[in-house]
Amino acid sequence: MKIQQPKIGKALPGADWEEAFDLDEGTVHSVCIEGGTAFSDGGRVRLDGAEFRKVDFRGFEAPGSEVLDSVFDGCDLSNADFSRSSLHRCVFRRVKLTGAVFSESSLRDVRFEHCAGRYASFNFSKIERVRFDDNELASADFVGCELKGVEFGKNQLDDASFLDTDLAGIDLTRAEYANLTVSPQLLAGCRVTRDQAVGFARTFGLEIEE
């Protein structure tokens, strides 16, 4: 699966958040921000063509936002709210996503790599051409999602929930979990290992003959 890369300039000017953030327009555009704390008025923002390195977005509230062609590297988005947002051509690398909210959003051409996303919420989102690779996503929620061209590499998914999400075409063979919540009627076509299949069978009440 080919995921489009962020369209970012090769030599972005550096700035801090206060300098780069247009409070009237709610925008950050074509800039590299390293360190510091992000702030907003709690309304929608537009982050476009930007790179964020070790920026503190903890508790950042920006529902209904647009995040385009941007890279987050080593940032902390714990409990940030990007619900009902559009995230297109973005990379999240080594990002803390504990409790982050991306519910009811559109994610397209996005990569999550080496992130800590326990309790993150993607509920009722449309997720297309997105790769999750080597992330800690225990107790994350993917309830009622539309998944298309989504790849789950080696991720920790213990106690994650895919309730009411069609998993046809999804490969979970590299995922690690002791318990995973799914809807049995929407599991057909999901690729799992033999041990994972036995685990699902037991969860659904089947008695396995050893």
Topology:
Elements: E1 14-15, H1 17-20, E2 27-29, E3 32-34, E4 46-48, E5 51-53, E6 66-73, E7 86-93, E8 106-113, E9 126-133, E10 146-152, E11 160-162, E12 180-182, H2 194-203
Parallel strand pairs: 1-3, 2-4, 3-5, 4-6, 5-6, 6-7, 7-8, 8-9, 9-10, 11-12
Describe the structure in your own words.
Strands 1, 2, 3, 4, 5, 6, 7, 8, 9 and 10 form a 10-stranded parallel sheet that branches. A two-stranded parallel sheet has the order 11-12. The chain starts with 13 loop residues before the first strand and ends in a 7-residue tail after the last helix. The chain has 210 residues and is mainly beta.
Rg, rounded, reads 18 Å
**Number of β-strand runs:** 12
The largest sheet is: 10 strands, parallel
- Structural class category: mainly beta
Terminal-residue CA separation? 38 Å
Report helical residue fraction: under 10%
Q: Report strand %.
A: 25-35%
Q: Which outline best applies?
A: elongated
Low-confidence stretches: none
Q: Treating each run of at least 4 consecutive H or I residues as one helix, how many helices?
A: 2
Rounded mean pLDDT score? 94
- SSE string, helices as H and strands as E: EHEEEEEEEEEEEH
